[in-house]
Design a protein that fits this description.
Helices cover 18% and strands 32% of the residues. By secondary structure, it is α+β, with helices and mostly antiparallel strands. The relative contact order is 0.18. One of its GO terms (biological process) is endoplasmic reticulum to Golgi vesicle-mediated transport.
Length: 327
């Protein structure tokens, strides 16, 4: 009898721990945090095991933060949830901090993913190109050689069906869904981003000033994302670097009256955004003109060559005329 009671109590305790728990949000609506998609401090429990999450690359785990990349060149790291999201409507809050020694040059940034595939390395902020799903990109360095219509750091979104490439040289401006300027680097406090997907509306907001209030970045209608995809975060550094730290990842289930059949049906849709701006033609930047110094040395070389030719010609004809007079 005692053994059965103990087993029952353990099962009840496990059920309680695995169940979602209710939180009250700013809009006074009940939402549920799902533990299988949530990551909160302290991170380091037993060794470096993160329940429901995998990590790769140069990712380093501490009790207070997860560092995707250190402030060193040519580093890459990623963090992926291994439970697929089986809810149509959701919201995630990501606490992060990007900081480093650089004051004028730093990079490259990090991305928050909701994609079909997980744990794939690649050139897009440490993750694969030609992905299927949603990317929320926080880009800290401008790769654009020509004039930009916005400043960096810059927050943008891209929806991909697996057939488009992220144009890193153009900072994704050829395929972005929407975006806004964000100043989150080298502050003394945790910065936050909210990504809400409800009834095919994608809303992204930020809290970058430590005011405990959200500021809208953009809202886009008619965005279709499948169920059954995975959340992840990745970052990379190149010649320039930064510490890219994740402090928390909270997943809120905001589904209401969504049937199981509807959730299963949406596993088959292809990611798309009906208001998505189609990819523009990639045009190379105009080649820069020659500098004044380069022009000077070219002209000097031409003058020297011309003078040498003239001296040779004069010497040649003088020698030829002298031989004629001798004969």
């Amino acid at each position: 009898m005692t053994g059965k009671l103990t087993i029952n109590r353990l099962l009840a305790l496990l059920a309680l721990l695995s169940a979602p728990f209710r939180v009250l949000c700013d809009d006074d609506h009940d939402q549920y945090v799902k533990r299988e998609h949530t990551l909160v401090r302290p991170f380091q429990g037993v060794g470096v095991i993160l329940p429901h999450w995998d990590f790769m690359g140069n990712t380093m785990i501490t009790s207070n933060y997860i560092r995707l990349t250190p402030d060193l060149q040519s580093k890459s790291g990623a963090l992926w949830n291994y439970s697929p999201v089986m809810g149509r409507n959701w919201e995630v809050h990501v606490g992060f901090k990007v900081h480093g020694k650089g004051t004028e040059l730093f990079g490259d940034g990090f991305a928050i993913w909701y994609t079909k595939e997980r744990m794939k390395t690649g050139p897009v902020f440490g993750s694969k190109d030609f992905f299927s799903g949603l990317a929320i990109i926080l880009d800290t360095y401008s790769n654009h050689n020509g004039p930009h219509n916005h400043q960096h750091p810059y927050l943008s979104a891209m929806v991909n069906n697996g057939s488009w490439s992220y144009d890193h040289d153009r900072d994704g401006t050829h395929t972005q869904l929407a975006g806004c300027e964000v100043r989150f680097r080298n502050v003394d406090y945790e910065t936050l981003i909210s990504i809400r997907y409800e009834n095919d509306i994608l809303s992204v907001s930020t809290d970058l000033e430590n005011r405990n209030e959200w500021k809208s970045c953009f809202v886009v209608n008619n965005v279709e994302l499948p169920t059954g995809y995975y959340f992840g975060m990745s970052a990379t550094t190149g010649d320039l670097s930064d510490n890219h730290d994740i402090h928390s990842f909270k997943f809120f289930d905001v589904d209401s009256n969504i049937s199981h059949d509807e959730i299963i049906r949406r596993t088959n849709i292809i990611p798309n955004a009906k208001t998505f701006e189609p990819p523009r033609e990639h045009k190379d930047d105009p080649k820069p003109g020659m500098s004044n110094a380069k022009i000077f040395f070219i002209l000097l070389f031409v003058v020297v060559v011309a003078a040498a030719v003239a001296i040779f010609a004069i010497s040649y004809f003088k020698d030829r005329n002298a031989r004629k007079r001798f004969y």
